[in-house]
Design brief:
two-stranded antiparallel ribbon, five-stranded parallel beta sheet, alpha/beta, 8 helices, 7 strands
């Protein structure tokens, strides 16, 4: 069994879903420290040919707080703002209706960032035909630090192989992950190739997968995530 592990991201990009599609079980790493101004609470969409950052405000909490405990700041009207920005960005595209379920989640009442992100990620995965089971690390009770924590999670779900994004290569190799864990280690590099973007003459890459979905539809997005477009 092959496993991948990533921190839960807000409105993730297509490469995030490529990782989900490539494994037997995907783990949302919500039992580690929250990082402010990271992709855990923000992502980019395209409005009038320019990228726009949407960020979920979070309540003030200790800097050492785990992702699973981070609360969104409901005193700010970010939900309606994000929904309006998504409509402004993609409301006139031919596949705008494909964003309806996600916009409904954004407008909802999730009080924890991990709940919000988890529901968005699972919903988007299913919309583009990815059925990989998605599990939260906080439900597994695994210990260890850094790569040992990764190894314990893999063992907890019965995985003998770990698939990692290339960005983690340095710390995994510095920790001797493959040798110390006894797990097979491989990497998945996603090719963010250009696709048609409404209102943009120059392709803007690494946006939220919503950009692919709205511009190109579910079938294309499925193929794009799998590298077959």
């Amino acid at each position: 069994m092959k496993c991948a592990i990533m921190q839960p991201t807000y409105l993730p990009w297509a490469g995030y879903f490529a990782l989900i599609a490539a494994v037997d079980v995907f783990i949302l790493l919500d039992d580690v420290q929250f990082e402010r101004k990271s992709w855990q609470s923000r992502n980019r969409i395209l409005i009038n040919g320019k990228d726009k950052v949407l960020e979920v405000p979070v309540a003030k909490q200790p800097l050492t707080e785990k992702i699973s405990n981070i609360r969104v700041d409901s005193s700010k009207d970010w939900r309606n703002n994000h929904a309006a920005e998504l409509d402004r960005a993609y409301g006139q595209t031919s596949n705008a209706s494909a964003l309806a379920d996600v916009i409904e989640i954004v407008r909802g009442d999730d009080q924890l960032l991990s709940d919000l992100n988890g529901r968005i990620i699972t919903t988007l995965a299913r919309q583009v035909g990815i059925e990989t089971p998605i599990v939260r690390a906080s439900s597994l009770g695994c210990g260890g630090r850094r790569s040992e924590h990764v190894a314990e999670i893999c063992r907890a779900v019965g995985a003998g192989s770990y698939l990692s994004p290339p960005g983690a290569r340095d710390y995994l190799e510095a920790d001797g992950f493959a040798a110390n864990s006894g797990l097979h280690l491989s990497y998945l590099a996603f090719d963010a190739s250009p696709y048609p973007q409404a209102g943009s003459s120059d392709f803007v890459s690494h946006l939220s997968i919503l950009d692919v979905l709205a511009n190109c539809g579910r079938e294309f997005t499925h193929s794009y995530v799998l590298g077959k477009s």
